[in-house]
Amino acid sequence: MTRKKDINKDYKVLGLDSIDEDIYDRQKRIPGWDQNKISNATIMVVGAGATGNELIKNLVLTGIRKIILIDYDIIEKSNLNRCVLFNMECTIENKYKVDVVKEACENLNSEVEIVALKQDLNDIDKNLYKQSDVVCSCLDNIEARLQANNYAYYYGIPFIDSGIDEFFGSVQAVYSGVENAACLQCGITSADLNLMWKKFSCTGQEIKSENGESMGKMATIITTTAIIGGIQTQQVLKFVLGIDYFKEHGKWHPNIGEPLINKQLNYNGLTNKFDIIEKRKDPKCWICSFNKK
Ligand SMILES: [Zn+2]
């Protein structure tokens, strides 16, 4: 039997009538997928740096149409090695990250609405949390990450946190709709806080320890950022596609899978390994144990 004969047997020649006009055709083929849920979802993203770029690009390509984006930073040249939506022109004109992301996303999909807020997270209208289906943090600042965690937990909105550092990254999901779910604040001590200041960054900005000491600029690379941004996007999709099923059945849809609630996924680019550590609710946590809605 010749190779040519095999090909003729196994593959059909596609006619013009099989060309697919639906942008989302291939993902709609995934069992359990509901493109309407994706189209109608509003996602809040705090941080428009490297991980934010990856996450937002993925969300827009998937068909998410509304993103509330919060970041008051201006683009610098040192952002360009890992931010797919930025370019050199942005650095010359001192453009804000949120404005450039908004324009780039509207080019990717004219139906997308990016609410671009050049504000500190402290200053935003807290009703924006309630208008969101999922809140994501892509930040190098533990204080802001905890604040996003706290509000999202209080309002019962799923929250997905990410952190990257050189070849290492992590993702964790928090959702107060799951009984006894740990939040980001759980078990954090001042020693942990100090360590986390050192560990997490997605912007590469110079960071300071709790006592104000300069700790230099963080080392970051697009490979880690892309992997962690991809996993963070996947967590968003699990909530958007699966939360109604969870609320109805008390378990996650088998075709969509369970988010990383009570779990922290860690990626190690040196060993090529992922691992998941269990996160336990701290009965003394001032957010999730005393501040329930
Ligand atoms: Zn907690």
Keywords summarizing the entry:
10 helices; single chain; eight-stranded mixed β-sheet; Rossmann fold; two-stranded antiparallel ribbon
A few lines on this structure:
The protein has 293 residues and is of the alpha/beta class. The chain is 35% helix and 18% strand. The model is unreliable at 200-204 (pLDDT under 50).
Describe this structure in words.
- It contains ten helices and ten strands.
- With 293 residues, the chain is of the alpha/beta class.
- α4 packs across α10.
- It is globular and about 50 Å long.
- β5 and β6 form a beta hairpin.
- It is 35% helix and 18% strand.
- The strands form two sheets. An eight-stranded mixed sheet has the order 3-2-1-4-5-6-9-10, sandwiched between helices.
- The protein has one domain: Rossmann fold, CATH 3.40.50.720.
- The structure holds zinc ion.
How are the SSEs ordered, and which strands pair?
Layout (H helix, E strand, L loop, with lengths): L2 H8 L14 H4 L6 H6 L1 E5 L3 H13 L3 E5 L17 H5 L4 H12 L4 E5 L9 H4 L3 E4 L4 H14 L3 E7 L2 E7 L15 H10 L6 E3 L5 E4 L4 H28 L13 E6 L4 E6 L15
Parallel strand pairs: 1-2, 1-4, 2-3, 4-5
Antiparallel strand pairs: 5-6, 6-9, 7-8, 9-10
Helix pairs in contact: 4-10
Zinc ion (ZN) binds next to loops.
